[in-house]
Structure formats: C-alpha cells, structure tokens
Amino acid sequence: YKKQEATVEPPSELREILDAKEFAKARLYKLDLAKFSFCHDIVDHIQTALILLLDLISALWNLAGIICVKIGIIGEVYQSMWVVGLAIIISSLLDVPWAYVRAFVVEEKHGFNKQTVPFFIRDTIMKLLVSLVTATPIIAVLVWIVKWNSEHSVLVTGTFLSVTGFFLMTIYPEVIAPLFDKYTLLP
C-alpha cells in the first residue's frame, strides 16, 4: 500500500503504453481498493476470532441437530449438511454489505461499476443458491466417506475432492457462469 501511495508517476517501463492520467486513475482505484480490503480483512479477522472464542461452531452444530430432529432426519450426514448450509447463509448475509460497498461505492467512484441494485440482489441470491447446491452434497459425501471408510478415508477423500474439483471446473463455463453473466463467442 505504501509503495502504491508513494508511486505517483508511471514506471519507465509503462510510460509508452500508459499515460500519466490513466496511471493516476488506476493508482487511486488501487489505493481505495486496498483501504477497503484492509477494513474488510480486519472485520473478517474479528468475526473469525469471535466465532472461535464464543464457540459458535458447536452452537451451529447444535442448532443443525435441533433442525434435523424437528424435520425428522437424524444422522451426522444430514446434520453436517445443515451446518454447512447455515454457515453459507450466515456468511453470505455478513458479506452482503461489503459487496454492496465495493460495487456501489468503491467501484462506482472510479467508474467501474456496471451493476444495478436489482442485478446485485439477483446476483447475490444466485451465488448463495449455487453455493448451497454445490457445497451441501459435497459435504454429505465427505462425511459419508469418513464415516464408512475410515481406513482409507484420506485416499478416498482426496480422490473424491480431485474428481469433484475437475468436474466443477468442467461445468463452470457452460452451466454455472451463464447463470451470472451473458457470454458471446469471439469471432
């Protein structure tokens, strides 16, 4: 941050392709983004510390257990799915103000924001749904692997995560990304 703040002229290597005005705009954007990220990181660290100090993970586990009992499904797999689902929802809700400020304050100040509020809301809901739809079944399989295959669970878990990662990378451009943005093929 300090180096970016102190560098007011473009480096000699960039002077031919980047004029001083463009460099100044990019520099101010990066400085604002760095300040924003610094504040966000501090709050994230405080939240993480509070989660650990207040033992909120076990509280979430207990809440998930109560939900499972109320809806009539019992077991570690289901309870783990509820824990992950609730954690994703809580995390998403805590991140909404930060995402809003980044898009509609920081990026808009520098002319980069192309989002509208309705698009932002839709995008946020879609991210939440995609996270829930992908993460909860993955957690279910991981818990099942560890529970039923404890002797080789490290190998099986690693293999499952690798295959799942490759699968998600394969379907992302065709299935997941189009949910958020329109893509046109290049000529």
UniProtKB/TrEMBL annotation:
Nucleotide-binding listed as a keyword: no
Keywords on record: Membrane, Transmembrane, Transmembrane helix
Transmembrane portions of the chain: 50-75, 81-105, 125-146, 152-172
One Pfam match: Peptidase_M48_N
InterPro entries: Peptidase_M48_N
Keyword check for Transmembrane helix: yes
Domain named CAAX prenyl protease 1 N-terminal: residues: 4-182
Cross-referenced PANTHER family: CAAX PRENYL PROTEASE 1
Name this protein carries in UniProt: CAAX prenyl protease 1 N-terminal domain-containing protein
Native species: Trichuris suis (pig whipworm)
